């Protein structure tokens, strides 16, 4: 095809071109579906509830006791968070 590049480079270029073409077609299909997809009334909208978290008493390895210095350092870190 190109006289100045090797066969391996031509194969690599062809593979890259095919991969780019597949990616562009997939992206176009994804965008087309998201634009023209109409949900049915009463269809599934996601989770109805968020599952509850386990308490610290559920497993002893999930609870860590902090020293007073660690508690103060954590409180100082939390105070640095912006409020908005």
The sequence of SSEs as H and E is: HH
Question: Mean pLDDT, nearest integer?
Answer: 81
Radius of gyration based on Cα positions: 28 Å
Q: Structural class, please?
A: mainly alpha
How many β strands by DSSP?
0
Low-confidence stretches: none
| Helix count from the secondary structure assignment | 2
Distance between the termini: 60 Å
| Biggest sheet layout | none
Please report which band the strand proportion falls in: under 5%, 5-15%, 15-25%, 25-35%, 35-45% or over 45%: under 5%
Spatial shape? elongated
Range of helix content: 40-55%
What would a concise description of this structure say?
The protein has 84 residues and is mainly α. It has helices spanning 7-36, 68-79.
What does this structure look like?
This protein has 84 residues and is mainly alpha-helical. Helices cover 50% and strands 0% of the residues. The chain contains two helices and no strands. The longest helix is centred in the N-terminal third of the chain and has 30 residues, at 7-36. It is elongated, with a radius of gyration of 28 Å. The model has no long low-confidence stretch (mean pLDDT 81).
Short key terms for the protein model shown above:
mainly alpha
Topology:
Elements: H1 7-36, H2 68-79
């Amino acid at each position: 095809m190109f006289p100045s590049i090797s066969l391996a480079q031509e194969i690599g270029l062809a593979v890259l071109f095919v991969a780019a073409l597949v990616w562009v077609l997939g992206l176009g299909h994804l965008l087309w579906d998201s634009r023209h997809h109409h949900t049915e009334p009463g269809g599934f909208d996601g989770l109805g509830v968020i599952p509850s978290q386990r308490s610290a008493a559920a497993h002893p390895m999930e609870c860590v006791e902090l020293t007073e210095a660690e508690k103060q350092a954590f409180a100082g870190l939390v105070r640095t968070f912006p409020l908005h």
